[in-house]
Amino acid sequence: MTRKKILLAVCGSISFYKAFEILSELKKENFDVYVALSEGVLKFVDYHAFDALCEHPVLCSKTEDWQEGLNHIEYAKMDLILVAPASVNTINKLAWGVCDNIFLQTLIASDAKILIAPAANEKMLTNPITKNCIHILKEKRKAEFIEPVVKKLACGDVAKGGLADINTIIYAVKRAVTADNFYENKMVVITGGPTIEKIDDVRAITNLSSGKMGRALADAFYMLGADVTLISSVDFSVPYKLIKFDSSIGLKSALDSIRFKENSLLVMAAAVSDYTPRSRYKGKLKKEELGDLWTLRLGINNDILSSIESKKLKKIGFKMESDQETALMSAKKTLIIKHLDAVCLNILDSVVKFGSDDTKITFITKNSEIKLKQAPKSELAMQIAELAKSLF
């Protein structure tokens, strides 16, 4: 992430303490974080508590100092404002332009993109007046709301009013500052993880794929604003749609269920077994019955990627090779045989291996070969997403 300036605006919600974790996570993501506190939150905590975590002076009614640049005009000059947790009081006042304190003055003075993560009693949030104010903020201010979650609230009710999960909030922030108009609402489907081809009820043929590259790619396209679906054999907690599969048949079934839109993108990063057992045994095979030597019959698997034919979408495949001398030729052959628009080539070495966090990739099309240097998979995923734009 580039070092973007973010104002974390904290309201007087009972969940104010989660703002400490949000602040910490934003700093880990290399954001330049500023903090503004409402009058309400000062009833719960002293501003010095945030001062201890923040690299900049905390703005509130007790600290305002025009001589030092600690005022609502300076703190309005941000790349993004995150109101979390957001109280109903602040939501309603902001919608109607009320700025009777330094906190609201800062929000009103800024033209930065604004994310609002409410945390309040459900009846307060669903009150017609509040709903109207939320509508106003969405329409007039182009504010984006991070939906609250169902949980047991401070009042004892179990309802939709709890602050969204911290990871969901961080995802929303990263998406807000990296969104690319090219990918806005573009349908992108990514597959990831190993296939698990069962032999009997307890044994299977699989591989060492971790699913990390698929997850990194899905994250990258989501951050850029795409409508993402991740089809994965590895379970992840993500803010976009996740479809689980186990076997190659399950993967094919999941892909067949997708209704691709015009100009969609399919990125096939799943490690699909080349061979599958010819017979599936019920129960557990016993070694006493199999003997000292057991011959397992395998048959070549169906080529899932080649079977997906649609003029609506572009297709990117992944190819892993171990021979440096023949890898490029093999990848180019795959490009043609499987009717792909691009191939991401991995060549196994001390860095490129299953489960690693870093990798190296050569992005191959019919007309080019672009080598992406060793980097974390999250960084390479963003580079791949940028290169994929040239396919359309």
TrEMBL record:
Keywords, alphabetical: Decarboxylase, Flavoprotein, FMN, Ligase, Lyase, Magnesium, Metal-binding, Multifunctional enzyme
Q: Which family does it belong to?
A: In the N-terminal section; belongs to the HFCD (homo-oligomeric flavin containing Cys decarboxylase) superfamily.
What is catalyzed by this enzyme?
A: N-[(R)-4-phosphopantothenoyl]-L-cysteine + H(+) = (R)-4'-phosphopantetheine + CO2; (R)-4'-phosphopantothenate + L-cysteine + CTP = N-[(R)-4-phosphopantothenoyl]-L-cysteine + CMP + diphosphate + H(+)
Q: How is the cofactor bound?
A: Binds 1 FMN per subunit.
Q: Which positions are catalytic residues?
A: 155
Name the EC number(s).
4.1.1.36, 6.3.2.5
Flavoprotein domain residues: 4-152
Give the function comment from the record.
Answer: Catalyzes two sequential steps in the biosynthesis of coenzyme A. In the first step cysteine is conjugated to 4'-phosphopantothenate to form 4-phosphopantothenoylcysteine. In the second step the latter compound is decarboxylated to form 4'-phosphopantotheine. Catalyzes two steps in the biosynthesis of coenzyme A. In the first step cysteine is conjugated to 4'-phosphopantothenate to form 4-phosphopantothenoylcysteine, in the latter compound is decarboxylated to form 4'-phosphopantotheine.
Give me the Gene Ontology terms describing cellular component: phosphopantothenoylcysteine decarboxylase complex
**Cofactor(s) this protein requires:** Mg(2+); FMN
What gene name is given for the protein in this entry? coaBC
Full protein name: Coenzyme A biosynthesis bifunctional protein CoaBC
Q: Which PANTHER family match?
A: HOMO-OLIGOMERIC FLAVIN CONTAINING CYS DECARBOXYLASE FAMILY, PHOSPHOPANTOTHENOYLCYSTEINE DECARBOXYLASE
Biological process terms in GO annotation: coenzyme A biosynthetic process; pantothenate catabolic process
Q: Where is this region: Phosphopantothenate--cysteine ligase?
A: 188-392
User: Which residues are noted in the entry as CTP-binding?
Assistant: 274, 284, 318, 338
Pathway(s) it belongs to: Cofactor biosynthesis; coenzyme A biosynthesis; CoA from (R)-pantothenate: step 2/5; Cofactor biosynthesis; coenzyme A biosynthesis; CoA from (R)-pantothenate: step 3/5
Return the annotated region ranges for Phosphopantothenoylcysteine decarboxylase.
Answer: 1-187
DNA/pantothenate metabolism flavoprotein C-terminal domain sequence ranges: 184-387
Example GO molecular function: FMN binding
Query: Which sequence ranges form a coiled-coil region, renumbered to this chain?
Result: none
Species annotation: Campylobacter hominis (strain ATCC BAA-381 / DSM 21671 / CCUG 45161 / LMG 19568 / NCTC 13146 / CH001A)
